[in-house]
Specification:
The protein is an alpha+beta fold. The chain contains 5 helices and 8 strands. It is globular.
C-alpha cells in the first residue's frame, strides 16, 4: 500500500513538473516588444483616419522605436450602425494571438483570453513605444483615458439609430461623436473600487472626440497598439 502511494506521489510530482515546463515553454518569460500605448495622438483627436490611419500611426511609432518589422494594429473597435450595412469590427479580433510584451520585455498577456481576463496591464507596464510611463491619476496632466471604442470583452458596442456614436464616427471625426475609453492605470491612486474604474479597455465615454474635449475627462487621444504577428 505504501509502495503504491509512493508511486502515485512520484507520478503526480512528475506530471506537475511536466505541466510547469510546458507552461514555461508556451509563454516565454520575456520577449520583443509587441504592445505599447501611443506616445502621442496623430493630431486630430478622435479622428484617427479610420482604422487604417490608426494602424499606420502604430506602425510609424513602432518603426521609430526599432520594431517596424512587425505588423502593428490599433486596439480599436468600430460598430455596425444600420442602415450602412458595414459589419462591426472587434478590437480583440485585430491584434493577433499573442503573447505580447512591453518595451521593457515584460509580459502583458499570453493570448487574447488572458488579455481580456487577469492580464498584467497597469500604469507601470502599459508603457509607450519609447518605454516611458503614461501619466495616470495623481499626475499632471492625467492622460489615462485610452481610446478603445470597445466593451470589456474587446467587442464593439451595439450601434442603433438614435444612439450616440461611441467610436468617434468609426474614428473619422471629432464632432458629434464620443468614444469608449479604458484606464491604463486601473485603480492606482484612487479610492474608487467600481469595475469601470479598473477596466483597461471600457471605463466611460469621453466628453466628445475633439482634441480640445478629450483632456476634460483625463485623456490625450492615446490608444493601444499590438503586434499582430
Amino acid at each position: 500500500m505504501q509502495r503504491t502511494a509512493r508511486i502515485l506521489a512520484t507520478a503526480l510530482t512528475a506530471a506537475a513538473a511536466a505541466a510547469l515546463v510546458a507552461s514555461c515553454a508556451t509563454t516565454p518569460p520575456t520577449g520583443p516588444m509587441g504592445f505599447f500605448v501611443t506616445s502621442a495622438n496623430p493630431g486630430n483627436g478622435g479622428n484617427l483616419g479610420g482604422l487604417a490611419g490608426a494602424d499606420a500611426h502604430c506602425q510609424k511609432l513602432a518603426a521609430a522605436a526599432g520594431a517596424g518589422s512587425r505588423t502593428w494594429r490599433a486596439y480599436l473597435s468600430t460598430s455596425y450602425i444600420p442602415p450602412n450595412a458595414t459589419s462591426a469590427v472587434h478590437a480583440r479580433d485585430r491584434i493577433g494571438k499573442g503573447p505580447w510584451f512591453n518595451a521593457k520585455g515584460v509580459l502583458i498577456a499570453s493570448d487574447v483570453a488572458h488579455l481580456h481576463g487577469a492580464n498584467n496591464l497597469s500604469k507601470l507596464t502599459a508603457l509607450t513605444e519609447k518605454g516611458t510611463v503614461v501619466n495616470g491619476r495623481g499626475d499632471t496632466p492625467v492622460t489615462h483615458d485610452i481610446l478603445t471604442g470597445s466593451r470589456p470583452d474587446g467587442t464593439a458596442p451595439a450601434g442603433f439609430p438614435g444612439q450616440p456614436n461611441v467610436t468617434c464616427g468609426e474614428w473619422t471625426r471629432e464632432a458629434n461623436a464620443f468614444a469608449v475609453v479604458g484606464h491604463h492605470d486601473r485603480l492606482q491612486n484612487t479610492p474608487v473600487t467600481d469595475p469601470w474604474a479598473e477596466s483597461w479597455n471600457s471605463s466611460h465615454l469621453t466628453v466628445s472626440c475633439s482634441k480640445e474635449d478629450l483632456p476634460k475627462s483625463g485623456g490625450a487621444g492615446l490608444f493601444y497598439c499590438f503586434a499582430a504577428n
